[in-house]
Known about the structure:
This protein is of the alpha/beta class. The protein folds into 2 domains: 82-178 and 190-293 and 328-427, Spore Coat Polysaccharide Biosynthesis Protein SpsA, Chain A (Alpha-Beta Complex), CATH 3.90.550.10; 475-686, no CATH class. It is 54% helix and 8% strand. The protein has helices at residues 18-41, 48-74, 85-92, 113-124, 144-167, 174-180, 188-202, 234-249, 269-277, 309-320, 336-339, 352-355, 364-374, 398-407, 431-449, 455-458, 465-475, 480-497, 510-530, 535-564, 581-588, 599-624, 629-649, 651-659, 668-686, and strands spanning 10-14, 79-83, 99-105, 133-139, 218-222, 254-259, 263-264, 286-291, 293-295, 332-335, 412-416, 423-425. The strands form 3 sheets. The chain has a 7-stranded mixed β-sheet, with helices on both faces. Strands 7-12-9 form a 3-stranded mixed β-sheet. The longest helix has 30 residues, at 535-564. It is globular. The chain starts with 9 loop residues before the first strand and ends with a helix. It is found in: Golgi apparatus membrane. The active site is at residues 140, 399.
Amino acid sequence: MAKSNYVPLFETKQVKGRLLFRCIAASIFLGICFIVMYRVMFFPVGGKAERWTWIGLFLSELWFCFYWFLTTVSRWNSVYRLPYIQRLSQRFEKELPGIDIFVCTTDPLIEPPSMVVNTVLSVMAYDYPPEKLSIYLSDDGGSDLTFYAMLEAANFSKTWLPFCKKFRVEPTSPEAYFRTASEPLSDAVNVKDWLSVKILIDGRDSNAVDIEGNPLPTLVYLAREKRPQHHHHFKAGSMNALIRVSSRISNGPIILNVDCDMYSNNSKAIKYSLCLFMDEKKGDEIAYIQFLQSFDNLTKNEIYASSFRVLQQLELHGLDAIGGPCYNGSGCFHRREALCGKKYEKNYKVDWKKVSDTKADESASFLEETCKVLASCTFEHNTTWGKEMGLIYGFLVEDIITGLNIQCKGWKSMYLSPERDGFLGVAPITLLQTLVQHKRWMDGHLQVFLSRYCPLLYGYKKIPLKLRLAYCPYNLWAANCLATLYIVVVPCLCLLKGISLFPKISSPWVFPFAYVAFVHRAYSLNEFLWCGGTFRGWCNDQRMWLFNRTTAYFFALFETILKLLGYSQLNFVVTAKVADKEALKRYDGELIEFGATSPMFDILATLAMLNLFGTFGALKKVILDVDEDLQVLDKFGLQILLCFVFVTINLPVYQALFFRNDNGKMPSSVTYKSIIFAMLACTATMY
């Protein structure tokens, strides 16, 4: 197309509210400066305990300020992409490239075959020429259940795909669609078709089949060879095997990978991504396009804060403006060449006419034998797979490190968040599942920061400084635990000891502390509501912020240190996607699930009791010392308020410790240990 006739396939627009964000950030920075001045000017000259607690609190505040600065940098200039699929259809309808779709599963007990099949069927039903679609399932569990479920899915797709096209079904996951769809009433023929398909899903009527003769996508099942003496590299190994196998069968220039629990929720997602990849001016530099990841089982108020709505709807748009978002492991479209290690060059151009049809001509049996070799556990020996080609090995967050490695080779990435979510997954429905999942993520991120792939060093002169800094808040998530634990523990103990850590209420120095705390949280609430959340959802988000930082982040930091010292090995934990009915009922009722023994719950309960005792101690001073109650409130007002905030956040913990009778209550052993530990800490502090 001539440059004079060039019409972009997508548009880049600035996110609204940037000026307000920058003004508030500037005012918070000014408040931080005054807090630092106060800490320096009023350094205690008295006892040893006063000096050390002051220093510890000052260091914690400096860490929070530094972390706030990193997150602010990444959001300073946010953008969003607006694709035009009508232009794509007009320009490239006959030259659309082949798309290879990868779905990975591990354990049929944790990831039920029915869920895997629904995901596979959903991506088979994309609004895209079916002859250009190839779906690959990697089953690391080698399960007979999953294999035979895939055979059933292949048969059912002959009916499901025409049904989706006829009724314009969204979402295209059968289970998700029939769970939410209403039966059509206007047309008797449509009603008959609708009912016949849903019986098919129940497997009760084997004769209810309607094949229209339309072409079907290619469907490939892969169970990798495994041997005890060879590391299979978890999901990264599955992905790399699929890259090699698919290159021999369909060799689509664009690859989409989704987790087995994350089904397609937008049948036009492929065309949205191609608007970016195939744009004549800006498309050739794009390595991957990350879609927003949402979940279909969230409660109204998101009891475990699993939506990450502010991060996904605001923060990742900030990364998009400075080089591109990180690769998040699922719901991501890749350029095959970039994923296979190719470096970007300025003169790189894609001829979509040549890559629009790349499927192999050999027989299925011949390809099957060839692919067995490509998927064998010894194929990667003495190759660059897992190092320079494919996903990088040796990290719990193989997706993050792979995305960074691709960006450091000159490629860019982009972020898409269409009005209708591209993919919907399954969020954990118990607190322990959530904390374990966060621990794995934080462990992996910190591992990256402490490795040779640290973005600040590895990305030097390869990616922009802002992008290197933007990676750091995620890499340093686990490190937040130390400052958070200090803020939670020390002020309440100092309250019992009679050590003041904040300015008096009557002092003008109280205003910087009050301003920074109030404005920062008020703006956080405003963002959460603007992103579609609720006030109670925001409160739950703050609670999970505290729970994660004091437990999951702490254990992630501890395990990472052990790994560096050689006392622990890489351990990939798959989050369970199933739960018992009682736990599910409590989740739907937004009751936090504590019904298990875990060191994480020991910490949560002990910290909750510690702040409760601190608050009681403060109230005792105010009530009993009648003549000095105003002085106590004036001197310890902010400390008392801080303890009261933590007590309020921990109300569900107290309920689980003392008032609940269901199976989701805190185990008795945890209750006894938390009371004993908290009392010992308070007693030791007062003497």
